[in-house]
Amino acid sequence: MRIAQPIMLTDEERDILTRWSRGRSTPARLVLRANIVLLAASGLQNKQIAPQLETDRFTVARWRSRFAQERLGGIEKDAPRSGRKSTQRNRVAARIIERTTQTRPANATHWSVRTLAEELNVSESMVHRVWKANNLKPHLSRTFKLSNDPRFVQKVVDVVGLYLDPPEHALVLCVDEKSQIQALDRTQPGLPIKKGRCGTMTHDYVRNGTTTLFAALEMAEGKLIGTCMPRHRHQEWIKFLHLIDQQTPAGLDLHLIADNYSTHKHPKVQRWLARHPRFHLHFIPTSSSWLNLVERWFREITDKSIRRGVFTSVEGLIQSIMSYIDHHNLNPNSFVWTAKVEDILAKVGRARAVLDKAQTD
Questions:
Q1: How far apart are CA 55 and CA 51, in angstroms?
Q2: What ranges in 137-280 are assigned the alpha helix state H?
Q3: Which of 17, 136, 303, 354 fits as disulfide partner to 131, beta carbons 3.0 to 4.6 Å?
Q4: What tens digit of pLDDT does each residue of 167-193 get?
């Protein structure tokens, strides 16, 4: 007569098996195996365990034996299945990957499961499995842009230096315009959020005019100086510089980080700066808006106040923007820059090497 092998558990094994047997997100097969081992460890025989767990004694014997031989790892993983291994996927996987990454269809910009399956004369499920196994997603793409500014390194060193080691007796401000903000009114009222359904709004809208937000984010405390104007010419930029001059302590130098928009370099702006020596402009490299932290704040106000807003007039839009700024300044949070110059230059260097290689291939 065959006698089932006795099971002895350590405290750690018992705790893990108990957690598995009770876990709501634990796979059902693992719950069953854990309960088999726990009952076996309590001294029950296989023929007693089987009806209690509504299974057969052969299943109980298999997992009891597997645990005795391999412990927790033996029941946590499934045993290799018998039968012939599929060879078709191995044969065509390399072709699917090569076609997906190195070629394009004749009449489209990227492959789909259906078009590639037809091209290679394989099943659509085969293409889908290979893509999933290799994390290939031809339907997705991301945008990028490397700066071609000849003074890229000098400008990065200058701006990041202001972030990481700001000068004494001075304020560092990130400045920019968010232009052409539209006052959009929806053609029908939206439905509110409710359990099981997100809020809704119509896809069409009525344009009621635009405004431009001028903003200066003070890096030390995170306060924001902002105003809205109808246009964004050098005249408006000079008015905004006047506003910054009025709303900052007179005894401090002001280091302004700005982009390369021509308005910021207009001759009249240069003459105004010459008459106000406490202003110092620092320009980020071209195509490098990520270096200007006010862009991060622009994303916040867009997500939280503008994109889903309903505005019947430009005045209503401006009131909403200024209200958001006032609320922000009640409890300002500063953005902390942590990237070092050498890390930025190394990352850009790697990206440029990949881009150069792609252009030469």
A1: 6
A2: 152-164, 234-247, 267-275
A3: 136
A4: 999 999 999 999 999 999 999 988 888
